[in-house]
Amino acid sequence: MSLTLILVILLLFLLLLNSMPVGFSLLVSGSAGLLAIAGLQTTLGVLKASPYEQAASFSLSTIPMFILMAEFLTAGRVTRELFSACHMWLGRLRGGLSFAAVSAGVLLAAISGSSSASAGTLASAAYPEMKRYGYDKAFATGVVATVGTLAMMIPPSIGLVLFGIFTETSVSQLLLAGIIPGLMTAAGYAITIYVITRIRPNAAPAGERVYTLREKAGSLIPIWPVIALMIVMIGSIYTGVITPTEAGAVGSLVALLLAVIKRRMTRSDFKTALTNATRNSTMIFIIIIGAMVFSVFLTLTGSTQDLISAIHTSGMSRWWIFLAFLMMYLILGFFLDQLAILILTLPLVFPIMMSLEFNPVWLGIVFVKTAEIGLVSPPLGLNVFIVGSVTNVPVGTVFRGIMPFLIADFIVLALIIIFPNLALYIAEVASAVN
To answer: Which residues are paired to 206 by β-bridges?
Structure first.
């Protein structure tokens, strides 16, 4: 590894540690590296062409469309209705509110795509109810923090979309491949809740009110259009009727129409939704542009090919290399957002994994899942701090509640690694159908 590469990587982490946004950290360090090895003219040429070439990609329009869909549904007050409906159906059980949070988390995941946003929404909607019914604080906050991670696996996962775009892997297959692992993770959380509430009944009391079947059925009326939208979007991608980009555009339009028809979106709400979607999309695009400049620098140094050659000549098992990268993703998850992790590492990691003949779709599922675990892992899991901030519960208490759910996460990850068809089955069936 050259001295220039080492210095540029040190510069990158120095900027990150000093709280410079990830996209600008990548842009500054990548530009400095280009300037050092290729000169001013080449650096200016890359900075002139790369931002437009990356931002103008048709595939990337998937991201702002899915974000806009989530913002319109939030502006339409759909998120609280999802939790309310799940509460009516499951609230009577011991720990019913936590089961309702898992169910609502699955539905939120299908309209959000962002784990941080999902965790924050659940914390504001579910935790006050849990607190009112006397749930243990550590248990309640642990539930909402971990359930938020479902949003990066269940379609429309922004993490999987970015993985597909950066690695030129089929986005449709990645989104479909995320369904079973996402549902397995939700089932793992539900089993964990069941075990905890049986071992420690005082962690989560039973609900006090029994809702009638009429009331339960009535709770589905406000949310059935959203559920129908999710099913149609996933079904359309599965059958190949529309692409993920088109699905995002259609979903955004339908979400807007739902909010307008229900008369819940004011002019101010509409403006806020557009502002939030623009801000979040811009943040992601800045990270992508910065990562591409940094990727050009890595390519010019030849570090990726040198590392691939070194790995092949070392005689090390490909599975040990795979596990080393998994550990890296887990550790990075302590400090960085999952999108930043993927964008930062894929230019280097993915070519190495392809040279070792791993399946790219399966790899995307495993890497995204590992990055998500890092978001709720001590000492600096970002979702934990989001939930702690929203609920005013000490971060140490949230971490204590998360520990049992981390066991479920690692079990699901191990199952996906040992049995790859769990991730690949739906994608392979859809590919065969189309």
So the answer is: 94
Q: Could you give the CA distance from residue 338 to residue 336 in angstroms, rounded to a whole number?
A: 6
Token pair listed for 365: 């599922």
Q: Please state, in angstroms and as integers, the Cα–Cα distance from residue 66 to each residue in 106, 248, 277, 310, following that order.
A: 16, 5, 9, 40
The pLDDT averaged over each successive group of 10 residues in the chain (434 residues) is 78 82 85 87 83 74 81 75 75 79 82 72 78 85 88 83 85 89 93 91 74 78 78 76 79 84 82 85 82 80 72 80 86 71 80 88 92 78 80 87 92 94 84 66
C-alpha–C-alpha distance, residues 195 and 204, integer Å: 11
Query: CB–CB of 385/334 below 8 Å?
Result: no
Q: How far is CA 150 from the centre of its chain?
A: 7
Q: Cα dist. 340→113, 290, 376, 386, 428 in Å? A: 15, 10, 16, 17, 29
Domain locations in the chain as residue ranges: 57-433
Nearest CA-CA partner of 93 in 122, 133, 128, 123: 133
Cα 72 to Cα 255: distance, rounded to the nearest angstrom: 6
Cα angle for residues 123, 395, 367 (degrees, 5° grid): 75
Q: Which residue in this structure is represented by tokens 């006050």?
A: 128
Q: Which among 116, 165, 145 has a CA at the least distance from the CA of 287?
A: 165
Side chain identity at 44, as an amino acid letter? L
- The Cα–Cα gap between 63 and 84 comes to 28
> What pTM value is reported for the model?
0.81
